[in-house]
Amino acid sequence: MTASAGGSTQACGTADGEARAEGDHGTKIGRVFALLEETYDAPRGQPGGDPLDGLVGTILSQHTSDVNSSRAHRSLRAAFPDWALVLAAPDEDVADAIRSGGLANLKARRIKEVLARVAAERDDFDLAFLADLPLDEARAWLQALPGVGPKTAACTLLFNLGRPALPVDTHVHRVTKRLGLIGPRVGAAAAHALLEAQLAPDQIYAFHVNMIAHGRRICRAPLPKCGVCPLSEVCDYYHDMLGVMRDA
Q: Could you report the per-residue pLDDT of 191-231, keeping only the tens digit for each?
């Protein structure tokens, strides 16, 4: 049981939690996808690395910056070069190794709980079998692990296993709400299935990567740069703001 620890708004008037008509959404999200690719290019993912390492890395990324989570990940791998050592170590030692990632005590317990569950169910630390399961089954298996929600599961599936699962992080959630691809009160967890259903499997990776780039550069949380946004023509938030300004 030893494995290496190395590796990686919806429009006003639409009922809360519901999407618009499927045909409208299909056309709209297709336009969004094309505009994103024109602006940010067409990223093509090369999935790989240990899926369990990716899963642990995503747990470490929760509620912290990429810089801090990467530092914690490297530190964990240096201190415990295989997963059996992490599982056998005292919680406080694991927490010390990942201190730079924040919430170290909680994350240490969570990581060890995940490792214990994986080892108990699989008798090793290899999650490669998830590549061969139907996507819904693979997602459900991951989400049954302690502390693993839709985003963490989707990250592992997409980036490590090459499965067409869409992670909805804070940028994807915010931008798709403003565009009107999901309802204004749809939470991030529910947004995963709603958005995935509107995209072709081979669009998932590029949509995710380009949405994050757009959220960081243009559609920022407090002050979106609507005046220079390439998606303004299809954005509910932008057109709502124009209406408010006209009525002022």
A: 999 999 999 999 999 999 999 999 999 999 999 999 999 99
Residue ranges in the chain modelled with pLDDT below 70: 1-26, 45, 244-248
Domains and CATH numbers, the chain: 22-44+167-247 (1.10.1670.10), 51-160 (1.10.340.30)
The tokens for 7 are 């590796």
Are the beta carbons of 98 and 108 closer than 8 angstroms? yes
Q: Residue 207 and residue 37: Cα distance in Å, rounded?
A: 8
Tokens, residue 198: 């509107």
Active site residues: 151
Give the pair of three-digit tokens for residue 101: 């990632």
Q: 4 phi and psi, to 5 degrees?
A: -65, 140
